[in-house]
Amino acid sequence: MTILDVAIIAIYLLFISWRGLREAQSHQNTDDFFLAGRSLSWPLIGLSLFATNISITSIIGLASSGYKTGISVFNYEWVGSVMLVIFAIFIAPFYLKYRLTTMPEYLERRYDHRSRLFFSVIAITVNIFIDIAGALYASSLFLSGIFPSLDLHILVFIMALITGLYTVLGGLRAVIVTDSIQAVLLTAGSIIIAFVVYQKTGWQEIHASIDANLLSLIRPVDDTLIPWPTLIISLPILAFYFMCTNQHMVQRILGARSVDDGRKGAIFAAFLKLPLLFMLILPGTAARLIYPELENTNLVYPFLMYDFLPAGILGIVLTGFIAALMSSIDSALTAASSIATMDIYRKFRPQSSQRHLINMGKVFIMVAVFIASLWAPFIEQFPTLWEYLQALLSYLSPPVVTCFIFGLFWRKATSQAAFTSLWMGSLVGLMLLVNNHFWDILPTIHYLYSATIIFLFSSSILVISSYLDTSKTESTLPEVDKKEIFAQPLSLPWYKGYPVFAWIVCICTTIIVLLFW
């Protein structure tokens, strides 16, 4: 690192803090702080979703998995793109018409307060221990190259402090603006790294020297990362949770100024995810030719950056990836804060003023930063960062997905059945987690297969309990005209409508999957 590199990073961090200060006086109510006043346009939504989704944990995790197990990890991304399109067409319009502030709020209005509270606890747990802590840990791998003498805990604390500061000051509006800048920096940095790797190895050399199985998306049933049967149910379950129910993703859509903007923003983000195969995953796989004996695969991307980028360029690229780190942390912070404030705290203090709720939201942001900072260093104990992220999500998310899917598409689902499904499904998930990673009482079940088992169990409980339950669930959600929901604005020509955007994403996805089958 040269003085120029450090100066570029410092200037960016100062700019981010200034953006937070600039937005600090613009919050009149909770919609302003948590949803940017519901005024976001689709390009901002798409860029922010992309920057949030492709966090620093994904950058390190995707490249690391690309090095270790090949390009099959891209299955998470293309399935996620398809799920974003489904979300944009069939689900996002209902969320926007219901004028939701948080995802747990939907469960209360569809079922009752018990489901809302239960999901709130799960969502905050996911945000703190997966999203925020994972991002803080990943950041330490990058920053250790700049400040090798600093302890991991200190590096984690520094990034948590800076990101927490501008998120507390600026709320979602500051987060969205900085995310859009970060998405551009992230893309530029990834392209530079990919270009360097391809120039160093050569496309023909990659195909000739690397095992063909590592360059295939469809893997055997006993594959350690993504067995092909999990593409049918398991990956869509995780994608549904992450894209359709996860507060720190959906929050951007909820802040849209119109249904059309929400739809197009989600589809735009789906399109931006597709080049990640060439920007992050394939460079990680190709790095096997550069570092054939790499012990810690989580370090492959930092190694590529520090070894091959010249002064100045390294500073710009590092700024992009620090930006990605901030994007993932700030998004999870605003999500955890909004749920803790609006779904839990307000339940016990219903008379709280808008200003008081905003202040409590800021308190919860700092609490979340503190807890995640304490946990982040312990992630070193897990085999890889990517396995840590996906495994925990596989055990926690299926019961929630069950309640949302049946709540959205099956009117007979009852409140008692939903709550029973949530707690029993979560109990099964906890039992599988303990068995697979701690006690080994039963044969170990791959975490993706575990996700399918938990989902099928939760679904069975919900359906059976709904038929046995004689009480009637009174939904407080307003009736929505489905013809109005699926119609595009009359003022737009057909080629600017969301169906065209959706078809483009689906066609591009199909071509990529077939090419790397």
Automatic annotation (TrEMBL):
Localisation per UniProt entry: Membrane
Q: Which UniProt keywords apply?
A: Membrane, Transmembrane, Transmembrane helix
The record's section on InterPro entries has: Na/Glc_symporter_sf, Na/solute_symporter, Na/solute_symporter_CS
| Membrane topology term | Multi-pass membrane protein
The answer to whether keyword Transmembrane helix applies is yes
Q: Does the keyword S-adenosyl-L-methionine apply?
A: no
Segments passing through the bilayer = 6-21, 42-64, 76-96, 117-138, 150-169, 181-198, 225-244, 265-291, 311-336, 357-376, 388-410, 417-435, 447-468, 498-516
Q: Would you identify the family this protein belongs to, as annotated?
A: Belongs to the sodium:solute symporter (SSF) (TC 2.A.21) family.
What the entry lists under PANTHER family is as follows: SODIUM_GLUCOSE COTRANSPORTER 4, SOLUTE CARRIER FAMILY 5
Q: What is this protein called?
A: Sodium/solute symporter
